[in-house]
Amino acid sequence: PAVTAAATTPKWAMLSIAVPLLFLLKEPKIRGELLPLGLFLLWSAVTLSWGPFYDGVVQWWQFAVVSALVALEADYRKVVFWFGLGVSISGVLAIPQYFGWNFIEQAIPPAGLFMNKNFLAEAGLMALVGAVAFRHWLLIPPLICAVILPASLGAFVTAALLALCWVWRKSKRLAIAGVFAGVLLGFIVYPHLDKTAFDARAALYLNTIGMIADKPFGHGVGSYWSAYPFYHDALTETPEVIYRAYVRPEKAHNDFLTVFAETGIPGVFLLGWFLLNVFKRAEKSGWVLLAFLGLGLFNFPLFNPATAFLAAVTCGHILNYRNHLRA
Predict the structure, then answer these.
(1) Cβ atoms within 10 Å of 39's Cβ, excluding its own
(2) What is the pTM assigned to this prediction?
(3) What is the pLDDT of residues 117-129, one digit of tens each?
(4) Scanning 1, 170, 230, 252, which has its CA 20 to 30 A from the CA of 203?
(5) Which run of H or of E encompasses 163?
């Protein structure tokens, strides 16, 4: 758990083994709504002709296959429960870790079994939204711990945005008042925050825009890590905290910018088309996907196996749910 690769690579490996085995149990239903995701996969494969790595497309392949497989008779409510139960274990472990009991070595505590506290907070928020939506009340206390104890600003902001969206549906005036209250709170809190993370992300965002402008058709799926050194000072100097000898960013800490930089305009168009198909059919499980996209503004849940898996399952469930309603 103390090394990033050790905390994520085995999970991707497990998915690589499990996803093909699922074909033995169920035959995926290739619905028309999955067409843009399939085209995105094809375009990602094309970008490999000028990209340096091949493993990036494997993760997208897993995402697409899981979405297709879940567009079946899967009980999404049970998926949310078992996912939430797994994250709840880390939520409970985060309590003693928060008070300094580091019996499980971590890179950034308190992280439960996730190595990095941000990874725990992201999975915890998605699980918490699902638990509330499907009334898994017993999971809510440990999941709240998983969200709050890591003190991940990205998770807090995403939770606030989700709350505003929910309030907007009930009372637009109250939502507008919430926006003003949030802005005021931001002005009060911001001077007391550590600016290191803000400066690092600002540099990543600006220089990633430089990457996109230089190659609008993308640098190749999975290429961000290898391409960034050529743009580390494209628009502004990257702070040493994330870019120095033997240290470089693997992602832009923004899923949208990472996908744009790697797959270019065609990739963003096709992925946006797919998400539009999903959200046109979304019901209450759409809140889980909305949490996933909100977290993607600040980190990279798309490239973490736990959060990416739940997002893929959610997409497949939404498409399957609406097709059943029409039937």
Answers:
(1) 17
(2) 0.88
(3) 999 999 999 999 9
(4) 1
(5) helix 153-170
Domain boundaries, the chain: 4-326
The DSSP code for 310 is H
Rounded-to-integer distance, Cα 185 and Cα 156, Å: 13
Phi, psi dihedral angles at 238 (to 5 degrees):
-80, 130
In sequence order, what are the residues at sequence separation of 6 or more whose Cβ sits closer than 8 angstroms to the Cβ of residue 118?
A: 108, 150, 152, 154, 155, 299
Nearest to 252 by CA among 211, 305, 216: 211
Asked if 243 contacts 224 with a C-beta cutoff of 8 angstroms, the reply is no
Report which of 213, 324, 313 is spatially closest to residue 260, judged by C-alpha positions. 213
DSSP labels, 7-68:
HHHHHHHHHHHHHHHHHHH------GGGHHHHHHHHHHHHHTTT-S-SHHHHHHHHHHHHHH
Greatest pairwise CA separation for the chain in angstroms: 58
Whole-number Å distance between alpha carbons of 323 and 173 = 35
pLDDT tens column, 53-72: 666 666 676 677 666 665 55
User: CA quadruple 302, 313, 319, 290: dihedral positive or negative?
Assistant: negative
CA distances 43 to 40, 57, 255, 275, 311, Å, are 5, 10, 18, 17, 21
291 CB-side CA count, 13 A: 30
